[in-house]
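EI: anyone free to look at a 120-residue chain?
SC: sure, send it
EI:
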Amino acid sequence: MGLGKKSETASGTLTPLGKYLLGDKIAVYRPGIIGLFQDKQVEMIRVFGTRWIPFGKELGECSANAKGYGIHGAPWSPEKKSGKWTEARQVVGQYDSDGCIRLSHEDMEELFSIIITRRR
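SC: here you go
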């Protein structure tokens, strides 16, 4: 698991502490899906991997507002020669996200399936 960056700059903070309810705006990303990240249009899989589960609201003793934080996978990018999409696994376990919890593809997929199943 990777957590937020250790800097307090606009583009990087540690993952907030506290108890958060997961939100409803769950997303599934694949190549070609474009969205906004830090006010720029980006291919979402390049930032969030294949899944995004947002924090919905604060439940107790939270160090930050839930908005903008969540759980997601590691970024993916196409290989230059083959064009095959691969996960940047080296960022998992690092202080590299903008405050979100980052998981490997396998762990994110498993968590996502559990959460989706329990919501139905």
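EI: The first helix runs from residue 45 to 48.
SC: 👍
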